[in-house]
C-alpha cells in the first residue's frame, strides 16, 4: 500500500503530464490522425515513465518540474504509446483490448493505427528538437534526447521487440536471450526515463550511470511483476484474458522460471535498484515508488 504522500504526488504529476500532453497533441483538430493519437495517449496509462523522469529531475535538482523537463518527459510517453499501438496490431500481438478499452486498430482500422503510432514517434522527435533549440542546444539536453532515441531504437525497445517477434511460437531456452529481450523491450525506456531526468538536472556522469543501473533493475522487476500479474491477477487486470501468455506460449519470465522463482527475481532486482539510489540524499520517495510499482496488483 502506498502512502498518502506518494498517492498525492502521483496524482499531481499525472495531472501535470496530461496537461502538457494535451497541449502537444492538436487539441481541437478534427483530423482523424489526431483523434487516433489522442485516443491512445489518453486511454488511462499510469504515466510511469514520465513520472520517473520528473521525479529523477526533481530529486537531483531540488527544483519543481516545469517546462524545462516536461517536454522530454512527455516525448517518452509519446514513444511508449506508439509502441503499445504497434504492439497490439494484428501483425504483432493482435490484441483487441488494452487498458480495458478497444485497441487503436479496432477503433480506427489498421492503416490509421499504424499511422497514429508513426505520428506519435514523429511528434516525440519534433518535441525534443523544439525543446533543444529553445534551450540553446545545451549539451545535457542533447545527450538526454540522444539517449532516449537510442533506447527506443534498434539497440533498445525495437531491438527487444525484434527478438520477441523472431522467436514467437518457439520457446526461448537461452536465459541470456530472454534477459536481452526484456532488457531491451522494457528496461531501456524505463532507464531512459531516469537518465533523461538526471541529464536535465545537470547530473554528473557517475550519477547518470547510477540512474541508468537503477532504471535497468527497476525495469526488469517491473516486467517480471507484469508477467506475474498477467497470470494471476487477471480478475483485477482489465483487458487481458487469463494466462494468455502461457496459453499462447509467449516467452516471459514466468513461463521460463515458474511463478515462485519469478517473484524471487522481482524482489532481488528491486532490492538491487534500491541499493543503487539509497546512497543519495532525498531518495526516500523514489524508493517508495519502486516498492509500490513492484508490489502493484494491476
Ligand atoms: C512495437 C516497437 C514496438 C515495441 C513494442 C512496449 C512494447 C514493445 C510492447 C508492449 C508489450 C509489453 C509486454 C511491454 C513490456 C513493457 C510493459 C509492461 C508495458 C506496459 O507498460 P505500462 O504498464 O503501461 O507502464 P500503461 O498502460 O500504464 O501505460
TrEMBL record:
Keywords from the named record: Isoprene biosynthesis, Magnesium, Metal-binding, Transferase
Broad EC category: transferase
Gene3D superfamilies associated with the record: Farnesyl Diphosphate Synthase
EC id: 2.5.1.10
Coiled-coil blocks: none
GO CC annotations on file: cytoplasm
Cofactor(s) it depends on: Mg(2+)
GO annotation (BP), single: terpenoid biosynthetic process
Enzymatic reactions: isopentenyl diphosphate + (2E)-geranyl diphosphate = (2E,6E)-farnesyl diphosphate + diphosphate
Pfam families according to UniProt: polyprenyl_synt
InterPro entries in the record: Isoprenoid_synthase_dom_sf, Polyprenyl_synt, Polyprenyl_synt_CS, Prenyl_diphosphate_synthase
Entry keyword Magnesium: yes
Molecular function via GO: (2E,6E)-farnesyl diphosphate synthase activity; metal ion binding
Family annotation (NCBIfam families): FPPsyn (NF045485)
Family statement drawn from the similarity comment of this UniProt entry: Belongs to the FPP/GGPP synthase family.
Protein's UniProt name: Farnesyl diphosphate synthase
Taxonomic source organism: Caldicellulosiruptor changbaiensis
Origin organism lineage: Bacteria, Bacillati, Bacillota, Bacillota incertae sedis, Caldicellulosiruptorales
